[in-house]
Structures are given as structure tokens and as C-alpha cells.
Amino acid sequence: MSTAKKTVKTAGIIMIITLMSKILGFGREVVIGSRFGTTHMVDAYNMAQNIPMVLFAAIGLAIATTVIPIFSEYLTKEGKDKAYDFVNNLLSIMLLITACFTIAGIGVSPYIVRLMAPGFEGNVFLLTVRLTMILFPVTILIAISNILTASLQSMEHFTVPAMIGIPYNIIIIGTVIIFSSRFGILGVAVATVIAALTQVLIQLPILYKLGFKFRFKVNFKDEAVKRVIILSIPVLIGTGMQVINTYVDRMIASYLPEGSISALNYANRLNGFALGIFSTAIVTVIYPSLSRSSALNNTKSFLRWLNFSIKAIIYVMLPVTVCAIVLRVPIIRLLFERGAFDERSTYLTSIGLMFFSIGITASGLRDVLSRGFYSLKDTKTPMYNGGIAVIINIILNLILVRYMQLGGLALSTSVAAIVTTFMLFISLRRKIGKIGGKEIINTFVKASSASFLMGIMIYYLFRELSKVMPDGKLYEAINLFGTIVSGVALYSLIILICDRTALRYLKVGLKYINSKLAGN
């Protein structure tokens, strides 16, 4: 099997696993929404989750991003033992740092909550502090899980890391269904910590089968650790900027009417569903290939992989954007509107989803382009880009929230993503020369035109079917599903006619599926 076909197959498997995880993630949001609605309890839980994410998750992700090239280098040149020594040292150092960070964070939680949620007062403030104290140990688990994931991916083991979200969501869903009436939102927070622990435990057995054995060793003078730190600092700042964007939205939303933070969270979850499935799968599989091409100074191969991923994201994300905008209300009503999640909750969430969706394609492209720069050992350009995104987001937040409230916060995030993605394209062209811009623009025009036609069709189709179908969740689900399938069919037909490349990859996918059905 060729490298390209293997990549398509691996990405497909990851997409399927990620889809399962995302469905469970939606299930988690549905049961939380059904049990707690868009109340101050969910606001407090979401803010308490964001606090350790803002303060440390970016560090874990930055380190994981830089582990792959260094681990691969050791694995190729000096063997597994040396590579595992590097991982053990890094794990031990991160355990020490995150443990100290967690203890300190728990101690100053009231001050952190006051700083990061200045609009919270009274009971919601006290509840957020308690939840923050419970959730702080997640920082340790995030750091460990990211290092384990990077190590497995470096050895081309993608499946298990992609699966870690499945038990995570099952544990939280089970807790909400079984224990929420007794323990409330505090029980959900404890379950979140336990769920994060499973993300570590599910990966360790695979590493042990590959010969890894954890040994606690701390050597701050290790050259590999120094390289990780040096490369991670710009990645950390750039990644942190994206997280800060989310925090700024939540902070300003804390001044808006009750439920605004929860509505932003639900809308962002929906928006991240497709982004997580397709963008994550593409970036995960492409990143090692980009790194290898860069290490070999093979610009042609590098551009081939980069253009492949860019076209894939454009072709997938643009129709998703249109579907999310046109069908946002029935989608939210079907998925969330039950129990405490009422019509007002649907309305607020639909506003956030519409404006978040505008930037979903840009967000996917930004992820791919950032990995391209990391592969070229340029971690500073995405960092500068992230800083500009934060500035744009804050300025637009302060302006648009006055006129659009919740919608202004979501639109600011999308505009920042679009502007900074254009800047990444320009920076990459300056760095390596021509990057196939005409082909990318051509792809965008085809996808935009097909998405526009699809949007018109699904709008009228859903409206007309709603007039003739009986009331009820089941019939609305049938209507929504049929409309989306019809829209996808129309869009796919237009793209397959216009782009032979897309047709070629479809044939590869169908051939692979047929071989599996035949037992080959």
C-alpha cells in the first residue's frame, strides 16, 4: 500500500474513532444540559474547567507537539532505549512541576476565580472556587497523557490515543445519570478528574508492550529536555493565546445574562464536533509526514502533504459551516432541548453556533498550517500569529458585545481565526516560496459554490418537509437527517464532477471499504 493510501486509511480510522468519541461527548453535553440546563451551576463548572486549561493545558500541548520530532530522532538514530530514557526524564520532570502547580493552584483558587471570572458573585463564585479546587489535579493528568500520546504517535500508533475520549465521556455521562441527583455538579467535577485519569491508564499498557518501563529520573541538564523547553516556549505562547481567546469570551460573558457562558460552551462544543473529527484526524496523521519531509529537506513532499490536508479541510469544513448556519436551530433543539434545556437555551446556543461556525474552516486550516511551521522547526511564527489573534479578538469583543452580546463574542473569535489564518498563509509563502496558492483558491471557489447551492437546497427542503411531517422529536430527527443526507449528496456530486482529485480519493476509500467487507 502506498504512503498516500496508508495515510488516507489511517486518517479514516481515526475519524471513525473520533466520531464515536464526539458522539459520546455530545451525549455528555446532552445529559448535563438535561440535568442542569443553562444555569449558574453549569456556568461555574465550565469556568472551573477553563481555569486549569488556561493555566496549564497549553503547556502540556506545547510539550507534546515538540516531543514527536525529538522522540523520532532518538528512535531513528539511537534506538528505543535512548528514546524511552528521554520520555522517562520528561515524564518525571512534568510530574514534579504539575504536582507543585496543582498544590499552589488549590491554595489560591479564590483569587484565581476572582481574576478570571470577575462577574461571578455570591453562590456562583463560591461554587466555582470549590469546583476549581476539585479540578486542579487534571493538570497533572493532562501533561502525562499528552506525553504518552506523542510517544505513541511517533511510533505510528494512532488508534489508542484517538480512543482516550471514549472512556472519558462514558464516565462523566454515567455519573450525571446515576449520581447527579445526590452529588450534583460537584460529583460531575470528581468524575471529570477520574475520567482524565483513564486517559493516562489506557495508553500505558500499549507503551509497555512496546518495551517502555517507567523509571523516575530527573535530569534538568539533559540536552533533549532543554530542546523540548526551547521549542515549547513559542508553541506554548501560541497555543496559550488560543486558549486565552476562549477565556476572554467567558470572562466578558460572565457580565451577560445568566446562561450566556453555558450557551457559548454548548455552541463551541457543536462547532468543535466536525472540527475535532476531521481536522484532528488530518493533523494527527499528516504531522509526522510533514516532519519527515522537512527533516529530509524534501520541499516537494512537504508541499504535497500540506496541500492534501488543506484541500481536505476546505472540502469538508465549508459545507459543515453552511449546514451549521442553516440548520442550527433544529440541530440544537434535537440534541439538547429537553429537561432544563428550554427554548431560551436553544435560542442562546443557536446564536453562538451561527457565529462560531463562520470561522470553523479557518480554524482547521490554522491547525494544519501551524503544524507545517512546527515541522520546519519554526515555532515563533505561529506564536506571533496567536498574539495577533488575541488582540483582534479582544478588540472585537469589546466592540461587538455592546451590539450583539453573545453573538458578538462568537463572531469575534471567528474573525480573529480568519484573519490570522490568512497571515499564516502569507508567512509560509515567504518562508518556502510558492505553496500552490492558485490550486488552493480554486479548491475554495469550488467548495464555496457547491456549499452555497447545498445551503439553498437544505433550507427549502427542511422547511417544506416540516410542513407535512407530524410534530415530535422522532419526525424532526427524520426530517433533519434526511435533509442533511440530501445536502451531502448534492454537495458531493458537484465536487466529484468538478475535481478529479476528490474522485480519485473516493475510489481509494471505496476500494478499501470493499476489501474489508470481502474479508481481505
Question: Helices, strands, pairings?
Answer:
Layout: H1 3-36, H2 40-77, H3 80-107, H4 109-116, H5 122-135, H6 138-154, H7 159-163, H8 165-201, H9 204-209, H10 223-253, H11 260-295, H12 299-326, H13 328-336, H14 343-357, H15 360-375, H16 380-404, H17 406-432, H18 437-468, H19 473-498, H20 500-517
Family: Belongs to the MurJ/MviN family.
Pathway: Cell wall biogenesis; peptidoglycan biosynthesis
Membrane topology: Multi-pass membrane protein
Task: Note down, in words, how this protein is organized.
The structure is a single chain. The protein is mainly α and 520 residues long. The protein folds into two domains: 3-435, no CATH class; 436-520, no CATH class. It is 87% helix and 0% strand. It has helices at residues 3-36, 40-77, 80-107, 109-116, 122-135, 138-154, 159-163, 165-201, 204-209, 223-253, 260-295, 299-326, 328-336, 343-357, 360-375, 380-404, 406-432, 437-468, 473-498, 500-517. α1 (3-36) packs antiparallel against α11 (260-295), α10 (223-253) runs antiparallel to α17 (406-432) and α12 (299-326) packs parallel to α18 (437-468). The protein is globular and about 70 Å long.
